[in-house]
TrEMBL record:
<dbReference type="InterPro" id="IPR036291">
    <property type="entry name" value="NAD(P)-bd_dom_sf"/>
</dbReference>
<dbReference type="InterPro" id="IPR002347">
    <property type="entry name" value="SDR_fam"/>
</dbReference>
<dbReference type="Pfam" id="PF00106">
    <property type="entry name" value="adh_short"/>
</dbReference>
<protein>
    <recommendedName>
        <fullName>3-oxoacyl-[acyl-carrier-protein] reductase</fullName>
    </recommendedName>
</protein>
Length: 263
């Protein structure tokens, strides 16, 4: 029997140093075709070239924004790019954060937060679930999960501490991250009956990315000490674990934090 490579899609790549890119790298190595969705065509192309040169199969689907119409169109493009590949894994990793006292937050920031963290998550989930519901269970001749996993697909949302805890500067961010968490829980309950696995991941700490490195530039020990910050590659391994769970023991929510995080 010829093998059909399953398809993995991730939205939110940033500059290629965070969770989205690390997850794409791991799933490419694990036998998935990788569809990359992001607003930054240059970083997207750089990551796709890297994955293809490493023996993977990646393609880019740039969008100008995370409106539902742009997300729908990116999914239409990726399906026509790989018409015979079943979409098996979808990761919604995009996030807009604003950390400000409540009285300083603008209406635009609130809207951006809701549009990126909630509305876009709804659109991404809809596009992924429409694909999953068309599929039979994943079979052993696909490169992803074992053939007895009784699974049509896995949808993962990247959350944050703010998904479960509001704080002094997080009114807009937290309200919208709570929203994604509620969405993911509702979807997990609605779609598990169809053997579609929906999971939410609380990232409870700072992820090591170019942006957070620059925020710790006065303390080089922060980057060097793996016990104090989350490595995006470690998060990616947890996502692969979620995907490989069989249907008798599915996780809806994981929380991930470095060993020395105070919580
Ligand atoms: N960094 C952390 O310490 C941390 C901690 C906990 C949770 N998280 C969560 O982890 C996920 C990924 O964050 P990251 O740190 O890896 O990446 P990042 O550098 O914080 O970039 C944010 C991501 O969100 C996307 N995004 C969409 N709309 C945006 C907007 N209006 N403004 C800014 N970014 C926007 C970007 O997508 P494009 O690819 O289109 O640019 C980018 O991939 C997010 O959901 C975030 O909330 C991060």
């Amino acid at each position: 029997m010829s093998s059909v490579r399953p398809l993995f899609v991730v939205a939110g790549i940033g500059n290629g140093t965070g969770t989205g890119a690390a997850t794409a790298r791991l799933f490419a190595k694990s036998g998935y075709r990788v569809a990359l969705i992001s607003r930054g065509p240059d970083y997207l192309n750089k990551l796709a070239t890297e994955l293809n040169q490493a023996g993977g199969e990646a393609a880019t689907f740039p969008l100008k924004d995370y409106t539902p119409a742009s997300i729908k169109s990116a999914f239409t493009s990726l399906k026509s790019h790989w018409p015979s590949s079943p979409l098996r894994v979808a990761v919604f990793n995009a996030g807009y954060g604003v950390w400000k006292p409540f009285l300083d937050i603008t209406e635009d920031e609130i809207r951006e937060s809701i549009d990126t963290n909630i509305l876009a998550a709804f659109a991404f989930a809809r596009a992924a679930l429409l694909e999953f519901t068309k599929l039979e269970f994943e079979t052993a001749n696909e490169g992803g999960v074992a053939g007895d996993a009784r699974k049509r697909g896995t949808l993962i949302f990247t959350g944050a501490t703010a998904s479960i805890r509001g704080n002094t500067l997080t009114s807009a961010f937290s309200a919208s991250k709570f929203g994604i968490r509620a969405l993911s829980q509702s979807l997990a309950k609605e779609f598990s009956k169809q053997n579609i696995h929906v999971a939410h991941s609380i990232i409870d700490g700072t992820i090591l990315t170019d942006r957070t490195k620059s925020q710790h530039s006065d303390d080089p020990s922060w980057e060097a000490n793996q016990d104090v910050r989350l490595d995006p590659n470690s998060i990616a391994r947890s996502y692969l674990h979620l995907v490989r769970q069989d249907s008798s023991a599915w996780t809806w929510e994981i929380d991930l934090r470095p060993a020395h995080e105070k919580w």
